[in-house]
């Protein structure tokens, strides 16, 4: 599938944004103050597929789709890039911020939701349906994504995150949208 697909009108889109404090070795949003942003029901079509999502993201050109999979069940984060996750099928509960973090976010997500995970934000799956699949995408031209776990010995994490830029256009709306609005 190629080309843009219908998205929820911005005026009716429900968006939640979370600032999550550093917890142990997981920086979360403490370095760049860019929130974890959840676009609830941004792709409203009941016929939505991973191919539709990939075609839309490629047409917008802000993020490049790189994989289809579930989410790992171990808390991890990325220090070399931000990540856009779009739920292509199923539903479940995800954890952001790290286990034991008093500021953690547990979020129910479902097909058609998108999650903009800023670099440093710990994330993992808690409980998902057997058909749960996401399209994972990264800013066009960004360095290869890394896997960090907040463990001792992971060096240079803060410095890599500090060097990252932010979006000039929303990766789903191709202009103004939740990623570039306050």
TrEMBL record:
InterPro entries: RmlC-like_jellyroll, RmlC_Cupin_sf, UCP019307_cupin, YjiB-like. Gene3D superfamilies: Jelly Rolls. It comes from the Eukaryota. PANTHER family: BLR7373 PROTEIN (PTHR36448), CUPIN TYPE-2 DOMAIN-CONTAINING PROTEIN (PTHR36448:SF3). This is RmlC-like cupin domain-containing protein. It comes from Phanerochaete sordida.
């Amino acid at each position: 599938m190629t080309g843009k697909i219908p998205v929820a009108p911005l005026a009716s889109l429900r968006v939640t944004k979370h600032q999550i404090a550093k917890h142990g070795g997981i920086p979360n949003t403490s370095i760049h103050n860019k929130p974890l942003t959840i676009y609830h029901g941004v792709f409203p079509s009941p016929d939505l597929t991973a191919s539709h999502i990939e075609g839309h993201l490629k047409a917008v050109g802000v993020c490049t789709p790189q994989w289809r999979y579930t989410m790992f069940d171990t808390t991890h984060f990325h220090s070399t890039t931000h990540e856009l996750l779009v739920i292509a099928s199923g539903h479940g509960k995800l954890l952001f911020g790290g286990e034991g973090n008093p500021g953690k976010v547990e979020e129910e997500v479902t097909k058609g939701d998108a999650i903009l995970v800023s670099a440093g934000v710990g994330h993992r799956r808690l409980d998902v349906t057997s058909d749960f699949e996401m399209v994972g995408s990264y800013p066009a031209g960004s360095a290869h994504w890394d896997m960090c776990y907040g463990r001792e010995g992971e060096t240079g994490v803060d410095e890599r995150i500090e060097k990252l830029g932010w979006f000039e256009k929303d990766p789903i709306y191709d202009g103004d949208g939740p990623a570039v609005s306050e």
